[in-house]
Amino acid sequence: MFDCSAALTPSGNGVIITLDVTAGSGKNAFPAGFNEWRGSIRCHVTAPAVGGRANKAVVNLVAEVFGISKTAVSIVAGATSSTKKVHIDGMDREDALRMIRALM
Q1: What pLDDT score was predicted for residue 37?
Q2: Cβ 13 vs Cβ 93: under 8 Å
């Protein structure tokens, strides 16, 4: 198992997760591994990287996996990049880390 703790940063009112997103993938998957070089958690979405569809799919998938509202998840950096920083409002870093580790 990889130490994915470097991908999670506490924020004032939640946690920021660094994701390495593959758009246009065969299936949705989060977490889908850990990219050691980028210090990010892999995320695959079937939506293409066109017109913000992949970003919307990332938000929906992260919310679904964590069992939280989509309004609690936002992309705070990397909207046009495959490396994204996703903020989860109201979630403690340790809780998020525990959930991700259980799923990997």
Answers
A1: 86
A2: no
Tens-digit pLDDT profile for residues 82-104: 999 999 999 999 999 999 988 88
Query: Looking at residue 7, what is its pLDDT?
Result: 93
The pTM is what? 0.92
> What does the pLDDT read at residue 9?
94
SS (H, E, C) the chain: CCCHHHHEEEECCEEEEEEEEECCCCCCECCCCEECCCCEEEEECCCCCCCCHHHHHHHHHHHHHHCCCHHHEEEEECCCCCEEEEEEECCCHHHHHHHHHHHC
Class for the domain spanning 18-103: alpha beta
Please report, for the chain, the start and end positions of each structural domain, with discontinuous segments joined by +.
18-103
Residue 19 tokens, joined: 């994701």
